[in-house]
Amino acid sequence: MDSDKVVRAMARWWQTVSQEDTDVTSHNPMLYDPLQDGVVKTSKTRQYLAALIICLGAVAAGTALAWTSPVLPQISVNVNASTAVNVAPLTGNETNFTLSNVTTAATPTSQPIDGRLQLTVGQQSWISSLLAIGAFLGALPTGYIADAIGRRYTALAMDVPFILAWLSISFANSAGWLYFGRFLIGIATGSFCVVAPMYISEIAETSIRGTLGTLFQLLLTVGILFVYIMGSLVSWTTLSMMCLVVPIVLFAGMLMLPETPVYLLKKGRRADAALSLKWLWGKYCDSRSAIQVIQNDLDQANADASILDLFSNRGARNGLIISMMLMFFQQFSGINAVIFYTQSIFESAGSSLSASVSSIIVGVVQVIMTLTSSLLIDRAGRKILLLFSSTVMTICLAILGAYFDMKESGKDVSHIGWLPLLCMVLFIITFSVGYGPIPWLMMGELFMPDVKATAVSLTVMVNWLCVFVVTKCFGVMINDWGSDMTFWFFACCMALATVYVALALVETKGKTSSQIQTWLSGR
Predict the structure, then answer these.
(1) How many Å apart are CA 240 and CA 171, to the nearest integer?
(2) What is the 3-state secondary structure (H, E, C) of 404-468?
(3) Is 144 exposed, middle or buried (0-12, 13-18, 19+ CB in 10 A)?
C-alpha cells in the first residue's frame, strides 16, 4: 500500500474514533452489537423491503415504456384508412414501433376531435422517442446528485418528474402536453436506472446481492405487463391515472427508508451508517464489523475521485468497459426483432390470438422467467447464466433468420409453423434469465464507491444511446436487409457476446467488493 494511503487511512481512523467519543448519537442503544451474547445474526427482510420500494421506480419506468403500445392506437388519426401503431417496449428499456397502413391523403391535426386527441404519425414518433432522449439526458447528472445529496434524497427528488409527467399526460389536450410528459418521464426513468441499482448494491449483504440486484429488471417487466393488461381493458386516460399511483406510493415508501451505509460512511457519518445497517440488517447484526469492511473499501479508494480516475485507474476502467459491453449486448440481443414479429410468429403457428393477447402472453413469460433468474442468480452465478443466455439466443436467432429466409423466398413453411414459436419462447425465456437482468446487477457491483456514481451514470447513458440507435435503425434494417439478414445480424452479436463473456468475465457471485476490484485490477 502507498504511504499516502496509509496516512489517509490512519487519519480517517483517528477522526472516526474522535467522532465516536464526542457524538452522542454513537451511544445510541440501537448501535449495541451483542457479540458477547453469541446472538449475532442478520435479517434479510428489510433488505428485500427496501429493494422492493426503490424498485417501484422500475415499475414506474416499465409503465412508461409500455404505455405507447395500447395508447397510441387509441389516439391515432384515421384518414381514409386505419393508422395502426404497434409499440412494443417489452424488455426493460427498449422502445420500438412500426407503422402500417399509413396514408397521407390529408393533413390531420393533433387537436381534440369530439374530446379525443388525434395524433399524426410524426407526432406519435416523437412521443415514442422523447422518452429515450429524456432518459439519456437524465442519467448523467443523477450520479453527481446522488454523490451530493445521497441516494435516498436523489430517488425522492427524481420521483417528482414521474408524478408531474403522469399528471401532464393524464390531462393532456394537445400533443405538446404529451411531449412534455414523455420527456419528463424519460428523465425520471433514466435517473432511476442509475440510482436504484446504486442503492441496492450498497444496502445488500453479499449473500443476496445478486437476488436483490435482479429485482430492478423483474419489477420493470411487472410494470410493462400491468400496462399491457390494463391497457386492453380501460381508456388511455384511465390507464395514465392508474400509472400515476405507482410513483406516489414510491415517494411515500422512500420516506421511511434510510440512506445507504456506504454513502453515510463516505461522508464521515459513522454513527448514522451503523444505525442504517441496524435498520436494514436487523438489530442483532454485527454492525461494527460490517462498517469496518465498508471503511476498508473506502480507504482503498480515492475519496475525491474524478471522471478521469475512471480511465486512469485500471480496475475502474475495466469495470466500465465490461459494464458498457454488457449493456451493448443487452440492446443488440435482437429482442426488438423478436418482439416486432410476435404477432406474425403466433399466426405462423396457427394462432388466432389478437396482438394485445399475444403481448400479454409474452409479458407473463418475461415476468416469470425474470423471477426465476432472481432465484438462480446467487446459486448458478452471473457468468454461467450470461453464457447460457447468449448461446441459446444465438441459436434461436439463427433459426428465425433461416425461417424468414425460406418464407420470403416463397417456400412452403406451413409444416414448420411451430418452429419460430418455439424459438421465440426460448429466446424470451433465456433473455429474461440472463441478458435482461444481469447487466443491471453487475453494473452495481463492479465499481468502488468513489467512482460508482459517475461510472453507473455513463453506463446507463450508453444503454439509452444503444436503445436509440436500435430503435432508429431497426426499420431501415428490415426494409434494406430483409427479416432474415436482420435476425442473422443479431445472432452474430450474440455469438460475439458469448465469446466476450467467456474470455473477459470471471464469476462475481459471493465475492466482496475488494475481491472484485482485485480481479479487475489484475492483481
Answers:
(1) 9
(2) HHHHHCCCCCHHHCHHHHHHHHHHHHHHHHCCCCHHHHHHHHCCCHHHHHHHHHHHHHHHHHHHH
(3) middle
Other Cβ atoms within 10 Å of 104 Cβ, number: 11
Is residue 305 within a helix (H) or strand (E), and if so which, with residue range?
none
Q: Report the C-alpha gap between 274 and 314 in whole angstroms.
A: 31
C-alpha cell at 101: 397502413
Query: What are the b/e assignments for 320-355, b being 16+ CB within 10 Å?
Result: bebbbbbbbbbbbbbbbbbbbbbbebbebeeeeeeb
Report pTM: 0.79
CB of 511 closer than 8 Å to CB of 443? no
Task: Give the SS3 label for residue 171.
Answer: coil
Q: How far apart are the first and last CA of the chain?
A: 13
Phi, psi dihedral angles at 97 (to 5 degrees): -145, 155
Bridge partners for 86 per DSSP: 98
The predicted-structure confidence for 182-240, as pLDDT tens digits, reads as follows 999 999 999 999 999 999 989 988 888 888 888 998 999 999 999 989 988 999 999 99
| Nearest C-alpha neighbor of 204 from the set 273, 280, 268 | 280
- Could you tell me which of 459, 436, 450, 442 has the C-alpha nearest to residue 190? 459
Q: Which residues contact 438 (CB under 8 A, 6 or more apart)?
A: 214, 326, 373, 377, 382, 385, 386, 389
Q: Please state, rounded to an integer, the average pLDDT across all residues of the chain.
A: 81
- Rounded to 10 degrees, the C-alpha dihedral 69/226/354/361 comes to 120
Q: Which residues of the chain have pLDDT under 50?
A: 1, 6-7, 13-14, 16-26, 29, 35-36, 79-92, 94-114
- Give which of 430, 490, 439, 431 is closest to 460, Cα–Cα: 439
Query: Among residues 247, 187, 251, which one has the least CA distance to residue 223?
Result: 247
Q: Which residues pair with 76 in a beta bridge?
A: 119
Which H/E stretch holds residue 230? Answer: helix 215-231
